[in-house]
């Protein structure tokens, strides 16, 4: 897996882009009265490094055969994906606003691969994105193609049995071109992950499934870059990066709360956020 980066932004520039993406998520969620703000903000720093540094992609040639594939398996964070794609030049912000979560719009609240070439897989039914990604990674091996597959999954999503079936499958097939990033924000839709269905000891589970494992702070751009730059973590195993994140990152009153999952921002809250950013 050679390095094929097509965008080499400095850490400072990446931090600026990550803040812009957070603002876009917040503004769009407010204007369209949408939920899942916390789930989208949670992945914003990871998405920034992926799309502005790691992934071999070209918005002008979204179907080029050697492109890396990215799948947002926790599809309810679609707004985080759309905001990143807009900033990366796949479409304009106005296009996003006109089409997201409105009657007749192209972008639903969960990704649909039929509406845009840059969306590699539909998702929303938790668990499936990872198995689709493993299939793509195996296909690359069979067809001798040189692309990597990156998949973001949620911690609550790991309650799905199919995640662990895929974990076995990927290790068995030595899919070193499969890179999973887990958005370990400690929350799912109705409670703390440790209370609903505990995952710990999480790192040990992946090690036991024969994956290469790293743990990082999922909001520290420098740390994300350092770790994504050294992928793959092993020449013959799939990789998982356990990224410790905060649900609702960037909105102090929603950070690390259950409310950040379903809450819609009010006008007063939006004003409070804007004054904080200024
Ligand atoms: C198969 C399936 N079951 C239930 C749901 C409903 N659901 C949507 S989001 C969510 C919680 C997911 O938690 P997590 O993966 O930790 O994502 P986060 O919101 O924390 O980013 C659930 C249970 C679903 N989308 N798919
Ligand atoms: Mg979670």
> What is the H/E order?
HHHEHHHEHEHHEHEH
Overall mean pLDDT stands at 95
Strand order of the largest sheet: 1-2-3-5-4
How much beta, percentage-wise?
A: 5-15%
Shape: globular
The DSSP helix count reads 11
In this entry the ligands are: thiamine diphosphate, magnesium ion
| Major sheet description | 5 strands, parallel
The strand count comes to 5
The class by helix and strand makeup works out as: alpha/beta
Low-confidence regions: 1-6
- Intertermini distance: 42 Å
Helix share, percent: 40-55%
Radius of gyration: 18 Å
Features:
278 residues; alpha/beta; 11 helices; 41% helix; 10% strand; binds thiamine diphosphate; binds magnesium ion
Question: What's the arrangement of secondary structure elements?
Answer:
Blueprint lengths: L10 H21 L5 H6 L1 H11 L14 E4 L5 H10 L5 H7 L28 H15 L6 E6 L6 H12 L5 E7 L8 H4 L5 H7 L3 E6 L3 H9 L9 E6 L22 H11 L1
Parallel strand pairs: 1-2, 2-3, 3-5, 4-5
Helix pairs in contact: 1-3, 1-4, 3-4, 3-10, 6-7
This protein binds thiamine diphosphate and magnesium ion.
The site of thiamine diphosphate has 20 residues, from helix 2.
In short:
The chain has 278 residues and is of the alpha/beta class. Helix content is 41%, strand content 10%.
What does this molecule look like?
By secondary structure, the chain is an alpha/beta fold. The protein is 41% helix and 10% strand. The chain contains 11 helices and 5 strands; from the N terminus they run H-H-H-E-H-H-H-E-H-E-H-H-E-H-E-H. It has helices spanning 11-31, 37-42, 44-54, 78-87, 93-99, 128-142, 161-172, 193-196, 202-208, 221-229, 267-277; strands spanning 69-72, 149-154, 178-184, 212-217, 239-244. Strands 1-2-3-5-4 form a 5-stranded parallel sheet, with helices on both faces. Helix 1 crosses helix 3 (44-54). The longest helix has 21 residues, at 11-31. The chain is globular and about 50 Å long. 47% of the residues are buried. The model is unreliable at 1-6 (pLDDT under 50). Bound molecules: thiamine diphosphate and magnesium ion.
């Amino acid at each position: 897996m050679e390095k094929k980066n097509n965008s080499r932004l400095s850490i400072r520039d990446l931090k600026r882009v990550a803040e812009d993406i957070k603002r876009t998520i917040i503004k769009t969620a407010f204007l369209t009265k949408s939920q899942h703000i916390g789930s989208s903000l949670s992945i914003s720093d990871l998405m920034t490094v992926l799309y502005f540094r790691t992934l071999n992609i070209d918005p002008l040639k979204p179907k080029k055969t050697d492109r890396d594939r990215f799948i947002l398996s926790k599809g309810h964070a679609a707004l985080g994906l759309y905001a990143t794609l807009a900033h990366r030049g796949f479409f304009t912000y106005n296009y996003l606003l006109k089409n997201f979560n409105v009657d007749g719009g192209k972008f639903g609240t969960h990704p649909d691969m039929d509406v845009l070439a840059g969306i590699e897989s539909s998702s929303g039914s938790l668990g499936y994105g990872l198995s689709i990604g493993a299939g793509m990674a195996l296909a690359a091996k069979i067809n001798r193609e040189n692309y990597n597959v990156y998949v973001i999954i949620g911690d609550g999503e790991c309650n799905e049995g199919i995640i662990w079936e895929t974990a076995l499958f990927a290790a068995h097939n030595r899919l070193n071109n499969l890179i999973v990033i887990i958005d370990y924000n400690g929350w799912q839709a109705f409670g703390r992950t440790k209370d609903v269905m505990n995952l710990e000891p999480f790192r040990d589970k992946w090690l036991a499934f024969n994956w290469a494992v790293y743990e990082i702070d999922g909001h520290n751009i420098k740390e994300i870059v350092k770790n994504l730059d050294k992928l793959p973590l092993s020449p013959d195993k799939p990789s998982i990066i356990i990224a410790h994140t905060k649900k609702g990152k960037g909105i102090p009153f929603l950070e690390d709360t259950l409310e950040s999952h379903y809450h819609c921002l009010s006008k007063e809250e939006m004003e409070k956020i804007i004054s904080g950013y200024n």
